[in-house]
Amino acid sequence: MEILIISGLSGSGKSKAATVLEDIGYYIVDNLPAEMMAKFADFCAASSGRYERVALVYDVRAGEPFDMLIDTLERIKTSGVNCRMLFLEASTQTIINRYKETRRKHPLSGKGLNIQQAVEKEREMMRPVRDHADFILDSTAFSTAKLRSEMLNLFGDQSDRGGLNVNVLSFGFKHGLPLEADLVFDVRFMPNPYYVAELKPKTGLDADVRDFVFSFQKTHDFMEQLTKMLKFLLPLYAEEGKTALVVAIGCTGGHHRSVAVAHETAEFIKKEGYPVTENHRDISR
Question: Domains in the chain, start-ordered, CATH in brackets?
Fold first, then answer.
């Protein structure tokens, strides 16, 4: 059985960290006093494997001396349970900004302290807890995705990460930009099969339309640059923890050029080893 205690400063990301752990199978208990942790550990150990991975969130709201947490941590460890502690922190200004954004009160701000004083007081109060942590994460510069990635690196395995799934989408600009797009590429500079009588009623999925679009050097030059960019970007998105990416490729109507290029792009991404879906939003308009 594994017990992870999540502690740290208020506003440093403990709740978000707990959410990531819950997503990968941890049983979460928030704001559990230290004096109850050992009893809860005994309960989990006697549960016939129902609670193999448990995360307990502990912070200043417990209102008890922090040496109780440290003693409890050591007691659980000596019982043979794999018990570790993660401590989350952030810069004072970052925490202040987060509280301003959420308009929530800091747990210590009601004791005659302004928010900066409250953050600094909590930092000093929590120092003994921090000193006993197995892992320390500073979330000052973390986006939600970055925090998720760091948590998965520490406590997840490859199956938990899920990987990056890419959706390649063709569309027509005259029908509007796809709001879900992360990356948008405009291929209206390419010669348009719409003005070739025998190609006009067809789409970019037809071989003769595709051959026409790719008969021009500018198309090959574009694809070379596009694939080079994707080869660079996709691992970085995956490392950041992004699980879904929409690559949108547009032409005027969404029938010919964007469809042909989107199909080639999807084939490239598939060869790079990423799960990919291919959609043509406006192909039947």
Answer: 2-161 (3.40.50.300), 165-280 (no CATH)
